[in-house]
């Protein structure tokens, strides 16, 4: 199935390219993609600014609101289901969010094969598909390999935020993150807009599990705090 052509529309939106996730997955981590240079995706935006990623963005409620609240940042929503990609794109157009882009792509592929090290200020993974049955857990996107890629893609001082209703998934990620030197639990820097699933789960009174892990600066200080351009 062909997805993801990287051409620009008049709105600057990244269009699907002829590249299939299974082909990408066969590649080794770190191998560059022959169709798109590793440095390409930050250039989707009209101007250089800190990049914030919403991975598995769903209908894009979080990404669009965050982009609206922070016009000084570039917000990248990544989603693999086309109807949801279209919703995000509609929100981008209706709300004239020139700092929001959407990619129709598996976010694990983005992290593993298409991204530059130290290129993102924030990475949000909100309610990743939980695959709660033990035999299905292999399908979870947040594997150790992908978490390591998140760490690589974050700028020093940048953070990864996970929120889920699945305590088992959360515990697995917490354990994996603890094994990455230079990735430390951090205080929540403030209120974030709710995603669609967050609103749903909160309205049902479900317990939620979440944390923020910050990539160290290497010298023990947190130079790039959230919000600093
Ligand atoms: C449970 S929904 C959560 C949506 C949104 N983050 C929210 O909190 O409202 C999970 C979303 O992640 C998308 N998704 C799952 N795995 C993905 C992957 N590997 N790459 C891109 N999107 C993915 C699904 O299509 C779905 O839209």
From TrEMBL:
Keywords in alphabetical order: Methyltransferase, S-adenosyl-L-methionine, Transferase, tRNA processing
Binding positions for S-adenosyl-L-methionine per the UniProt entry: 54, 79, 129
Pathway membership, UniProt: tRNA modification; N(7)-methylguanine-tRNA biosynthesis
One Gene Ontology cellular component: tRNA methyltransferase complex
Lineage: superkingdom: Bacteria
EC number(s) given by UniProt: 2.1.1.33
Gene3D superfamilies according to UniProt: Vaccinia Virus protein VP39
Cited Pfam families: Methyltransf_4 (PF02390)
UniProt keyword Calcium, yes or no: no
Gene Ontology MF terms in the entry: tRNA (guanine(46)-N7)-methyltransferase activity
Catalytic activity: guanosine(46) in tRNA + S-adenosyl-L-methionine = N(7)-methylguanosine(46) in tRNA + S-adenosyl-L-homocysteine
InterPro entries: SAM-dependent_MTases_sf, tRNA_(Gua-N-7)_MeTrfase_Trmb, tRNA_methyltr_TrmB_bact
Region (Disordered): 1-28
Binding sites annotated in the UniProt record for substrate: 133, 165
Family per similarity comment: Belongs to the class I-like SAM-binding methyltransferase superfamily. TrmB family.
Purpose of the protein: Catalyzes the formation of N(7)-methylguanine at position 46 (m7G46) in tRNA.
Descriptive protein name: tRNA (guanine-N(7)-)-methyltransferase
Naturally occurring in which organism (per UniProt): Methylacidimicrobium tartarophylax
Taxonomic lineage of the native organism: Bacteria, Pseudomonadati, Verrucomicrobiota, Methylacidimicrobium
């Amino acid at each position: 199935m062909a997805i993801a052509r990287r051409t620009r529309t008049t709105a600057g939106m990244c269009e699907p390219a002829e590249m299939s996730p299974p082909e990408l997955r066969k590649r080794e981590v770190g191998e560059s993609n022959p169709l798109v240079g590793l440095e390409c995706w930050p250039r989707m935006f009209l101007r250089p600014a800190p990049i914030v990623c919403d991975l598995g963005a769903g209908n894009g409620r979080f990404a669009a609101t965050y982009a609206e609240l922070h016009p000084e940042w570039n917000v990248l929503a990544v989603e693999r289901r086309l109807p949801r990609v279209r919703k995000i794109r509609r929100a981008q157009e209706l709300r004239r969010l020139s700092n929001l882009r959407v990619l129709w792509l598996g976010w694990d592929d983005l992290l593993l094969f298409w991204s530059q090290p130290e290129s993102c200020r924030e990475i949000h993974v909100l309610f990743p598909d939980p695959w709660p049955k033990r035999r299905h857990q292999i399908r979870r996107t947040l594997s150790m390999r992908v978490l390591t890629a998140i760490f690589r893609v974050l700028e020093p001082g940048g953070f990864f935020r996970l929120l889920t209703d699945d305590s088992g998934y959360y515990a697995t990620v917490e354990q994996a993150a603890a094994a990455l030197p230079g990735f430390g639990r951090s205080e929540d820097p403030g209120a974030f807009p709710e995603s669609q699933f967050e609103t749903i789960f909160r309205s049902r009174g479900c317990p939620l599990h979440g944390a923020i892990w910050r990539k160290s600066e290497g010298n023990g200080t947190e130079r790039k705090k959230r919000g600093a351009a």
